[in-house]
Amino acid sequence: FNQRRALGDEARKRRNWGKARGYYRRAQQEGCDDARVQNALGETFYGEGNMTQALRAFQQAARLDSTMPVPFTNIGRIYLRFGRFSEAIAAMTRAVELQQDDGGLRALLAEAYRGAGKVDEAIEEYQRALQLAPHVAEYYYNLGFIFEQSQQMHQAESLYEAALARQPHLPQGLFSLATLRLDQRRYSEAEVLLERLVQVQPNHAKAYFNLANAQMHLGKETGAIQSYRRFLSLHVEDGALHRVAERNLEQLLKSAQD
Predict the structure, then answer these.
(1) 214 close to 206: Cβ distance less than 8 angstroms
(2) Which of 11, 121, 164, 191 has a CA that sits 20 to 30 A from residue 146's CA?
(3) How far is residue 245's CA from residue 243's CA, in Å, rounded to a whole number?
(4) Residue 31: its pLDDT value, please?
């Protein structure tokens, strides 16, 4: 039994889902129905994208051992993916009860609350996640994004800055803070952030659009022309932005000729 399970774990690490599943099924046949094996079976289905079978396996694992947090976490992940937020909250709450010192579980519970529109609960869980894992930049960013959606811009700004202090090239952090800087008319700072972003993600179309906007306000016409051209070359589906870029580029080119 243990040998079959170990072989299955090795195959799963190599993402050889079918082979891993074969080992796990033989382990079940040779031993008892084990929650760890049932959960591992679920992870092979999850790796293949078969969420229905994965969910069934994780639920069976949770029934076999209701004190093991991993199956409940996996159930919560699937419900989050399906947008079934109430069920995700229930599963993640159980996982957190079983493993209260895991910041990642708190963050997943926060996302479930956010999806359900329970903003205060989402904020509270992200704050707890940060107490447990203060080094994780994404938690600062996600909490900042919740504050921004709630129009609490000062808190959002501070959290975006905290995220970038821990991970200076976090793409979503760079973009969101740059957008706030544009709204604040702090164009030089926005330009710096957006230039960093396009180095990390050279095909980030909206970054080029916003960069061109900052450069226009700074009087950097050559840079703005280049940024608008780069934006237009990426064939963004947003027609409104495309029309604004074409109009501004035409004006910049005309001004350069004059």
Answers:
(1) no
(2) 191
(3) 5
(4) 64
Residue type, 155: Q
- Statement: residue 4 has pLDDT above 80: no
Taking residue 152's Cβ as centre, other Cβ atoms within 10 Å add up to 14
State phi, psi for 206 to the nearest 5 degrees: -65, -25
* Total residue length of the chain: 258
Torsion, CA 17, CA 22, CA 24, CA 27, rounded to 10: -170
User: Mind listing the pLDDT tens digit for each residue in 18-59?
Assistant: 888 887 888 877 766 788 888 988 998 999 899 999 999 999
Distances (CA, A) of 180 to 152, 192, 254: 12, 13, 30
Place of tokens 């960093």: 196
Cα gap 66→237, rounded to integer Å: 48
Per-residue pLDDT tens over the stretch 99-130: 999 999 999 999 999 999 999 999 999 999 99
- As given in the structure block, the two tokens for residue 28 are 């079940």
Side chain identity at residue 99, one-letter code: Q
The token pair at 2 is 């243990």
Q: What angle do CA 43, 25, 2 make, to 5 degrees?
A: 90
Residues 6+ apart with CB under 8 A from 3: none
Question: Do 193 and 174 touch, CB atoms closer than 8 A?
Answer: yes
Count of Cβ atoms closer than 10 Å to residue 217 Cβ: 15
